[in-house]
Amino acid sequence: MGEFVATEERRKSLLEALGAAAREQGDLTVRHRDVMGARLGLGPTEEKTLDLLRRSGPLTAGEIAQRAGLAPATVSGLIDRLEGKWLVRRVRDLTDRRRVIVEINHERLAGFAELFEPYAAALERVYAHYTDDELAVILDWVHRSTAAQAEAVRALAGE
C-alpha cells in the first residue's frame, strides 16, 4: 500500500510540474512569435499566416482562413499586406485557372534566416541530451498533446 501511495504522489507531482512547464512553454512560444514578428515587421496574424504557409505549402485564401481560424472576409486584406511586403505572392493554379493560390516568396524570407538560427542551435543542444529512443517518446508526446489541443480548439470553436 505504501509503494502505491508514493507512486501516486510522484505521478501527481510530475503531472503538476508537466502542466506548469507546458504552460510556461506555451507562454514563451507566444512571446517568441510576437518578438520575431515585430523584428520582421509583422503583426501576429501575418506571422501566423507565414508560419502556416511554411508548414503547409501554398494554400488558397479559403484554406488559410480555415486552417488559421480567421474570418474569410479578413483574409484578402491579410494577403494584400503580406504581398505588399513581398513576403507572399498570388499565383494562378495551373490545373484550375479560376483558383488563386498564395505562396511564400522564399527569396524574400531567406534574408530573415539569421533570426531563427540562435533558437535552432539551442534546440540542437537540447536534443543532444537525449537518446533516439527518448526523442521518440518526446515526439510521441508532442503529437498526442497537439492532437488533444486541436480537438479542444475544435470543440471550443463549435466545429
UniProtKB/TrEMBL annotation:
Keywords: DNA-binding. GO terms for biological process: response to stress. The keyword Transferase does not apply. GO terms for molecular function: DNA binding; DNA-binding transcription factor activity. Residues 11-147 form the HTH marR-type domain. PANTHER family: TRANSCRIPTIONAL REGULATOR, MARR FAMILY, TRANSCRIPTIONAL REGULATORY PROTEIN. This is DNA-binding MarR family transcriptional regulator. The keyword Amino-acid biosynthesis does not apply. SUPFAM superfamilies: Winged helix' DNA-binding domain. It comes from Nonomuraea thailandensis. It comes from the Bacteria. InterPro entries: HTH_MarR-typ, MarR/SlyA-like, WH-like_DNA-bd_sf, WH_DNA-bd_sf. Transmembrane segments: none annotated.
